[in-house]
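Aggregate trends can hide what the representation actually does to any particular protein. The sequence in question and its structure tokens are set out directly beneath this paragraph.
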Amino acid sequence: MEKGTVEAVLRDFLRLFISNPYLCYTEHGLHALFYAHLYNALGQESLYFNFKGHIVCALQKEYATAHKLEKAKRQHWDIALIHKPENSDDIDYDMMPLAAVFEFGMNSNLEHLIDDIQRVGHERANADHRYVVHLYRLSEAKTRFSGRDWSSRARDVTKFVKDDRLLRFLEKVSNGSMRPEQIVAFLMEMGMDKAKAKAIVGERGVERPATIYFGLADNATEPAPLPARLYAVSDGRSQLITVNGFETAFAHEVLRRCEKVRTASL
């Protein structure tokens, strides 16, 4: 797998969402569209291989996890890229090593985000590269384009936009070393009841590093929309990739000015 190619495709796909958030109706639509983008970028020649006399495509939707990952049964990855085995004698078709796995969320709550991070960050996830992608599509009730949109005032959106504790947590967890009690403490800090936080986290920590993408697109007209933005978090650091179409060099200044205008309009 060419990691640079995969990440370039993913970032371009996320920029596409930020500028055109209604291309896909649901999260599953995002899976399908990203699959198509990655499939076209990697090309058939690099994707197909012979496995024990059968032709297999390396790019898969809902490929099974190699282990239960602390759940009752094996799970399934939103998108997985199989690492083509050099020797298939001791490898099962249902448990091939993976070059990359991708977990998506659209307008998903904090519980879903934590579950995705724990899953990709599990020491037995059987993947070389791990990605969590959570996107938010917003509008207000009077101008709502889709009933699936969230309000900019939604609790989890407010935590993301107005409170940097979530971003700081993602920076720490992206390193791949966080105990269950640390995750519970973070959820409690964000206002969750201790019993619920412990039930969500269970005994699962995060043992392996992951790259986490957070994106937001606001279709509201009143109040002033939140600035569209895309973050990448990996290796303990976060990067603001784009704000309202402006890339990294100008993103922070654009965000500052947009927030100033929005505050004045409220």
In short: Strands lie at 48-51, 54-57, 59-61, 79-82, 98-106, 127-138, 211-218, 229-234, 237-243, 246-247. The chain has a mean pLDDT of 87. The two ends are 48 Å apart (CA to CA). The first strand starts at residue 48 and ends at 51.
